[in-house]
Amino acid sequence: MVFTTPVIRALRRQFPDAHITYLVEAASAPVVRHNTHIDDLVIVERARGWSRLRDDWALGRRLRRSHFDVAIDLHGGPRAAWLTRASGAPVRIGYDVPGRRWAYTTRVAWTPSLVPPRHSVLNQWDLLAPLGVGPADPARDPVEMPLAPEAVERVDARLRAAGLADDARLAILHVSAGNPFRRWPANRFAELAATLAAGPELLHVVITAGPSEADAASRVARAARELAAGHGTRIVRCGEFDLEELAALVTRARLYIGGDSGPLHIAATTTTPVVALFGPTLAARSLPWRDPACPAVGVDAGPLPCRPCHQRSCAPGDFRCLTGITVPMVLDACRRALALSRGRHGDGFRPARPDGVS
Questions:
Q1: 148-177 residue pLDDT tens
Q2: I need a surface site. Which of 55, 259, 282, 352 has the fewest CB within 10 A?
Q3: DSSP class of residue 105?
Q4: CATH 3.40.50.2000: which residues of the chain?
């Protein structure tokens, strides 16, 4: 979802008077809910069985009644392909994938191979070529997620309740991922958090995780406080954050550290320095797509014969792409990201909040 936002911006620039409608499932809607380049947001329900057939049929009829001129399938799955075809748009653009060709009038080449690596935004951007949109440029068309003012207020209140002043220097440490192939060992997250909390940057480390791994995040926080000794109060757990709250939290921080998962890409929509941990995936495909002046440092275990992989099974059996990332490697990346940030903004840097949020 985040990787589609440069496409939305480019479409608005290319067709400033167009009416742009975006279809999205409810779970991902917060990413584009406040996107100013979108005129109409259609929430697609994720029903099951016969209910899905009924809902999709009704949605297809609704789309056809809207008389769209162009439909672009940014997803490429069977359901998205069917809805694209059901729209009845005279121009329907999608990937040239077996079993989907019938849905599109214009098909764009799709290469599923992991090698050579290519950024995911560029894969999305290919769908704009038939419309005459120029080359992709992260400085001009970064990923974006405008902040929700109410989410900013909720985050500020929770941080104050946790004893953090408004000017506290925050480092966000996201310790979970959607699958075990992207989870850095918990004991290393704890050691990293303890070291950052005791370091000269005077950082307060806020540990976050997905809802399904809240217990794991709490265990990391407890272990980190024990390791940090007299600096344990700088390690904070204040519950879980939804997508809009996470964006607001990262915007307020000096640093974000996490694996290649959804929260990393939410962090990429801010100007906050990012340290990204890449196990089976590659920085060339997933490093933050934004202005190069905003620091983003990738960390990985280096070349491995099994890397990248499709994340279905670990061929060596020991997740060496993750265990090969050491705490000193990540600490060095954190220091580099913070140094780059200071070089750009000076010692008093605090990332600006977009859209006039103060």
A1: 999 999 999 999 999 999 999 999 999 987
A2: 352
A3: S
A4: 2-131, 149-349
